Amino acid sequence: MSLTQLCERLLNWTGLPVEVWVGLVVAVIIFLFMTVIVLAVVYLFRKFAGFIQLRLGPRYVGPRGVLQTVCDAVKLLAKEDIIPAEADKGIFIAAPLIVFLPAYLAYIVIPFGQPPHFQPKDLNLGILYVLAITSITVVGIITAGWASGSKWATIGGMRSGAQLISYEVPMSLAVLVPVLISGSLSMKDIAEMQGDRIWYWNAFNISYFGLAFIAFVIYMICALAETNQIPFDLPEAESELVAGYNVEYSGMRFAFFFLAEFSNLFVVCAIATTLFLGGWYAPLPFLPDDGFWSLLWFMLKTLTLVFIVLWIRSTYPRVRIDQLMEFAWKRLFPIALIDLGIVSLIVALR
Amino acid sequence: MHFAADYWYVALFALMGVIFIFVALFLAWLIRPHNPTPDKLMPYECSVRPVGEARVQFRIIFYLVALLFLAFDVEVVFLFPWAVVLRELGSIGLGLLAWFDMMLFIGILLLAWLYAYRKGMLDW
C-alpha cells in the first residue's frame, strides 16, 4: 500500500473534508513560521543593534551566537511560573492568550507569495479583518496591566492602551489610501493592482503626486507605535516603568507577550509591503516573480522594512508621553485625513 | 452567503492557536520548578516592600482619549465601504457626488476635531 493510499484511507476514516486537513496543516506551518521568524528577527536585531552601537551582540552560543535566541526560548520554557499574590488570577492567566491569538490570526490573509499557494486564505475583507483582529491586542494589554496588581504594570497598561488606540485612527486612515486606489479590501487584489513595475507600486506611483507615499510614511510611523518600538516604546520604557504591562509575567506567559510583539512587527511590515510596495511582485517586469521567486521578493521587501524599523529602534531616543499623544491627534490625524481627501478626489475624477 | 463561507478558516486558526498555547503551557508545566515563597509573590517595586494600592487613580485624559478614539474610529469604519466603491462610482460618473457627500461627513467630524482641539482635549 503506497503512502497516498494510506493518507486517503486515513482521510476517509476520520470523515472530515480535505479542506479542514489542509487548514490544520497550514495552521501548524504558520505557527512554526511565526516562531522561527521571531527567533531570527530577535537574533538579527541584537546583532545589528550591537553593530550600530559598537558592541558585539550575542556571540557565545553556536557559531556567531546564532543559537542564542533558541537558548532564550528554552530558558523561558523552564522558568518558574509566578502568579503574584496581588494578581487577579483569572484575567492574569487569560491576558497573554488575548495578546497572542490576534498576532497569530493576522497571518491568515498575508500573501507571502503568489496566491493561492502562498496565502493561507484570501478573505474578501482582507485588510479590514487585519485591522479588526489586531485591535483586540489592546484589550489583552490593558487586562495584563490591570490584573498584575503592580503599579508599574498598571501605569504601563494604561499608557499602552492610550497609545495603541490613538495611533489606530491615523493607521486606518492611511490604510484607506491603497483601498481607494485598488477598490478592494482583499490583500490579493490590492497587490495584484500594483503589478510588477516599481513605478506602479502604491508608494511610488507618481499619478497620485506622492500622496500615497505620505500615506505609506504615516502607516509606518503608526506601525512603530502599534508595535511598541522605540521611539514610541513608552509602555515598556525600561528606565521609568521597568517593563510596563508585562513586569509581573514570567516564563512561558512572558514568552507569549514577547512572541506577539515581535510577530506583530513582522506582520505590520508584511502588510505595508502588500499595501504599498507591490506585495510579492518583482520591481521590474523582466525579473522572475512566479513560484518561489514571489516568496523571495515578498520576504526581501518585508525584511528590509523590518530592518529599517530596527535601525530606528537602535538609533533614536524615546519621546515623552505628551509628545507622543499630541503628535498622534494634532499632527498625524489631520494630515492623514487631508491626504485621504485629496487621493479620493483623484480616484473619483479618474 | 458564500462570502461568509471562507470564515470557518478563521475559527479553525483560532482553535489551533488556543491548542498551541495550551501545549506550550503544558510543556512548560512539565519541566519548570514550582516553589513559591511570599517574597516571590510580592508585586515588583524596585526591591522595596510595595507602598499603597496598585490600582491607583488615573488622570481623566485617558478616558477622554478613549472617547475621542471611539468617535473617530467609528468614522473610519464608515469610510471603508465608501472607499471600496468610489472607483466604481467614478466610472459611471457619480464619483464627484460620492466624494462631495463623504467630504461633508468628514468636514463635520473635522469641526468636532477642531472643537476638541480648541477646548484643550488633545493636550496631554
Description:
The complex is a heterodimer of chains A (350) and B (124). In chain A, 67% of the residues lie in helices and 0% in strands. Chain A is built from 13 helices and no strands. The longest helix of chain A has 35 residues, at 18-52. Chain B has 124 residues and is mainly α. Chain B folds into 2 domains: 2-41; 60-118. Chain B is 64% helix and 0% strand. In chain B, helix 2 runs antiparallel to helix 3. The chains are: A mainly alpha (350), B mainly alpha (124). Chains A and B meet through helix 2, helix 4, helix 7, helix 11 and helix 13 of A and helix 1, helix 2 and helix 3 of B.
Uncertain runs of chain B are none
Largest interface: A-B, 82 and 68 residues
| Shape call of chain A | globular
- Oligomeric form: heterodimer
> What is the makeup of the main sheet of chain A?
none
Low-confidence stretches of chain A: none
Helical proportion of chain B, percent range? 55-70%
Number of strands of chain B: 0
Count the DSSP helices of chain B.
3
Largest β sheet strand count, sense and barrel closure of chain B: none
How much of the sequence lies in strands of chain A comes to under 5%
